[in-house]
């Protein structure tokens, strides 16, 4: 299964999946990184893996429609079958979601449907979890639709929030679980243990 990643910053989630592919735990083929930020560490990680990267942003493509066309063109050129959002801070254009229905995954650092939605990203998520006094948190892998953090939930790992947790300490423990759950969920999709809706619909190239 050909994987494309979208990332904006560190790309540690992408790295965990690349590692799983390299050492044979995951039988998928990472083929492309789409990145909006030319300084992202994710680009260096992709280069090290030998995966092509395309930088697409409002500077490289000022026209929004042209940006969308370029994204779609890249995904089709590399015959992408599954899109993996890994810390991508831009909105995925609706035309891309429509072109890859139920074929776009995202990981969120809290137990959706709680602590998700517009503006809920990064440390804000963990701050909100702690402020709410939640007893548990953990990553959610879900399908992407046109609303933020709203698509079907595919997998979650629950961990306890400790009394002494700060947003930073919680973020660190959740991230450790993210690095496990993301490749494992992709593995289950590939093995048919998780069935994506419309999985038999062939993506048109
Ligand atoms: C992760 O916390 C993920 O849940 C969220 O963005 C962050 C990305 O981290 N969607 P990284 O770039 O993979 O290190």
- Tally of helical segments: 6
| Helix-residue proportion | 25-40%
Q: Categorize the overall geometry.
A: globular
Radius of gyration, in Å, reads 16 Å
**SSE sequence, one letter per element:** EHEHEHEHEHEEEEH
Distance between the termini: 14 Å
Q: If you average the pLDDT, what whole number results?
A: 95
- Strand residue percentage: 15-25%
Largest sheet: 7 strands, mixed
- Side by side, the strands of the main sheet go 3-2-1-4-5-7-8
**Annotation, overall tally of beta strands:** 9
Low-confidence stretches: none
Structural class category: alpha/beta
The hetero compounds bound to this protein are: 5-O-phosphono-beta-D-ribofuranosylamine
Structure report:
- A 7-stranded mixed β-sheet has the order 3-2-1-4-5-7-8, sandwiched between helices. It has a two-stranded antiparallel ribbon with strand order 6-9.
- Helix content is 36%, strand content 18%.
- The mean pLDDT is 95.
- It is α/β, with parallel strands linked by helices and 205 residues long.
- It is built from 6 helices and 9 strands.
- The chain has helices at 12-22, 41-49, 64-77, 94-99, 123-131, 167-191, and strands at 2-7, 29-35, 53-55, 82-85, 104-108, 136-137, 140-143, 153-156, 159-160.
- The protein binds 5-O-phosphono-beta-D-ribofuranosylamine.
- The site of 5-O-phosphono-beta-D-ribofuranosylamine (GRF) has 13 residues, from helix 1, strand 5 and helix 6.
